[in-house]
Amino acid sequence: MAERKSVLLRLDPAVHDALSRWASDELRSTNAQIEFLLRRALAEAGRLPSGTAAPPKRGRPRKSEPASGEDRPAGTDRG
Q1: Of 66, 69, 63, 70, whose CA–CA distance to 78 is shortest?
Q2: How far apart are CA 56 and CA 4, in angstroms?
Q3: Which one of 12, 34, 41, 75 counts the least CB within 10 Å of its CB?
Q4: InterPro entries under this entry (predicted)?
Q5: Which of 26, 57, 53, 23 is nearest to 39 (CA)?
Q6: What's the pLDDT score for residue 69?
Q7: Any residues with CB less than 8 A from the CB of 29 and at least 6 apart, and which?
């Protein structure tokens, strides 16, 4: 993934508080919420560049399931 850019953003304190609450409601950081909103606005305006990387997935990665029954405890075979 390409290096991410840092940007200084000056916001009205009330706007920042509202963004922080919204981010918290959606289990995102304030920074992630701002990026989410900017990406959505760019996409709706038809201005999101086609080479833009997808946003990172939220939450924990899924546990991979065992390929066969070798990791199951004894006596739990189905069949």
Answers
A1: 69
A2: 12
A3: 75
A4: Arc_rbn_hlx_hlx, Ribbon_hlx_hlx
A5: 53
A6: 55
A7: 23
- What DSSP character marks residue 23? H
In the chain (79 residues long), the average pLDDT of successive 10-residue segments reads 86 98 95 94 94 76 68 59
Give dist(CA 42, CA 64) in Å, integer: 35
Are 39 and 55 within 8 A, CB to CB? yes
* 23 CB neighbour count, 10 Å cutoff: 18
The Cα–Cα gap between 53 and 22 comes to 24
Tokens 């990387």 belong to residue = 53
Instruction: Dig out the tokens for 37 from the structure.
Output: 């909103």
Q: Is the dihedral of CA 22, 20, 25, 47 positive or negative?
A: positive
Report pLDDT for 11. 96
Assigned token pair, 70: 């070798």
CA–CA dist 55, 21 (Å, integer)? 21
